[in-house]
Amino acid sequence: MQTLQSVLLYGDYEWRPELLPRAEFERRLGEARRLMRENDWDKLLVYGDSRENAALCYFTNIVPNQRWSLLLVGIERDPRVVASVGPRDIPSIKRLTWVDDILASSDAKAALSEWLRESGSSNGPGRIAIAGLAQMRARIGGDIVSACGGPGGVVDATDALVAIRRVKSPAELSLLRKSYSLLQDAFAEVEDRRKAGSGIAAAVIAAEKAARHAGAQDVRSLCRSGRARPLAPVAGASDAEAGAPWSVYLAVRCCGYWTEGLTTLPFARCEAVAAMRDLVGKASAHVKQGLPFAQWQHDCGSPDTKSGRARTSLSARAHGLSLDAEPWLASQSGDVFAAPGAFMILGRATSAEGDEIMESATVFFDDAGRSELRPLRRGSTA
Amino acid sequence: MDEPLMDMEARVRCVVGAMEGAGIDVLIALQGDVHAFQSTDAVALLSGLRFRGPSFVVLGADGEATLTVSPPSELDRAARLSPLSKARAAADIHKALATCVEDLSAASARVGVVGLDTLGYADALGIEKMLGGSVRRFDAEFGRVTVRKTAQEIANAERATRIAEQGYALMLDLAKPGISELDLATEMCCAMATAGADDNFLMLSADRHNRAVRPPGSRRLCAGDIILCEISPAFNGQFSQICRTAMVGPGAEVYAAKYALLQRSFQNGMRAARPGATVSDIVEAVNANLIAAGYREFCVPPHMRARGHGLGFGSIAPGDLKQESGVPIEREMVFVIHPNQYMPETGYMMCGDPVVITEAGARNLAAQPASFDHIAL
After folding, report:
1. Taking the model in full, what pTM does it have?
2. pLDDT at position A327, please?
3. I need a labelling partner for A260 at 20 to 30 A (CA). Which of A52, A298, B209, B253 fits?
4. Are B104 and B158 part of one and the same domain?
């Protein structure tokens, strides 16, 4: 879910080889090179910035805290990272990644031209594939495409790299579980604060603080406390409307991996909320490895069935390295619940009072095909 | 009689006047979904807000402005909080923008564009193509006529400064050997968010001998560390910044003596910062004291970066305070002056406060000007 992007990410983004060993990154790079050979790409550029960095983080562990970084991959030579920082920041960048060759430069065109010269053949740079081309800021994109010989010289590799990230390794699953545990703790903090009489903004900020102290690299939030209002950034949230149910969205990043969840917390017994929790619990339990998304929706009576006075929908998407780039599963695309991975199951409905009711849970699949349902709030069925 | 303070209506009038002068019928002000600390946000300048997704304002020569926001749920905030009366939501902002540009092209309107570089590459390329490859970039003129903060933005900068000072006071309370930079930063950021900060550019790092300030990391504080803080919260979208230095435990006299040099440099910079002066006048005033003390060779990168900078999200005028900048200082500019400096005897130290330019000169927005602080063990 799209949140308000901060101007500076702060958190512990240092590379932890004990959690993601060099061999894991080399395997990923090997996958990228396999793609390069299959598609006749001579070079691969992977772009990431503080806003969207899933592909860059997947190959390098780097999450730029502001500005951008670029991974340059050739078929044979060692990869290079170009980071838009000053030379005095190189030691900080080295701590983020397993990649040894790091260049500090804010001039993408010059850095790329130099690398192409170093690695080029007499026949020119060859076919260059770029992941993240569309998301690059306009000027950087223009510089990079120009260094590659113009738009005709580049291929968009974004989707191909999303595809190789889809199946999660045991190490990734372990980090996703860790991330989800932090998320559950954060939601527990929200509930505790609410019971203690806190306002919604204070409760959400307390949840962020608890998650960060417990090891989260980043925490994003949206919340709503007014009737018939959409989710909004915390600073814009009003605590004024007494008695209105809270809806809270939280996302937690741990070692690069995001997990997210939504819940609605009424102040009194609410049939619509109870029904939604029941539905999400049952729908999550029904998720099976390899089950087509369309079949799952059909089996669970969604989308858009009318249940009493509430209009209900069920959706799902994978947790991963991005809050935006991981696609929602779609029936028309023939998507399935692929294993191994982790999927957020999200139910939404509009109550008779006009409040949007939301509840989510997460289902993990391991590489043996075993599934595990984990509700957002510990001890509940959904 | 003093000219009245700027407000949003007056700002729009200034922009429209500049459009007229440039022969532009319609201005499209764009902002992508990447928000940067030191780049102009044209949508924030005209709407008073920034949004989760890309957004744009279409401003006509008659001063009529329409704000388009994404994702659609942001319309609620726009309608409640922006002074612009016309706002709409776009489920597909790219399509909305394309339709807008197509309509303007069909009407043969002379279109100016601001903020194109904040969009993604594909979107920017698409707009350039639709406008026939002859996009009239209006960023420079737009930047020139929007350097003055509104009265509300100045009030927001003052509030942001109070919040920054609260954050620093908390840091002084919590810092002790063993606590990590990140845990300190988390406490500070969350306290400042509770106090109303809606974003924060917080740099905080510590070492016995610093070369520069860094984002907070996992390093744990030790006795004798010098803690560097660049605390930059935003309140209602207006940033402020204070730069502070503190020592964990009692320290050698040399730190306080060298810090006094930086404080004098700051005061010199403040005195030079008045309407009619230029950025280079301020830099010269800041540097003079340090040069006289024998630090000429350290008044250049990498021993320092700039002597200050503008504070967004709206206008970031007067830009970086660098010797080569001839940007004139004007009333109601808000920026930070920071003689942050590496010295061989002490390492890098930070000393800076935000100022607002008035007819009488620069006014420090900080209640407690920067001092060299000791944290008792």
Report:
1. 0.93
2. 76
3. A298
4. no
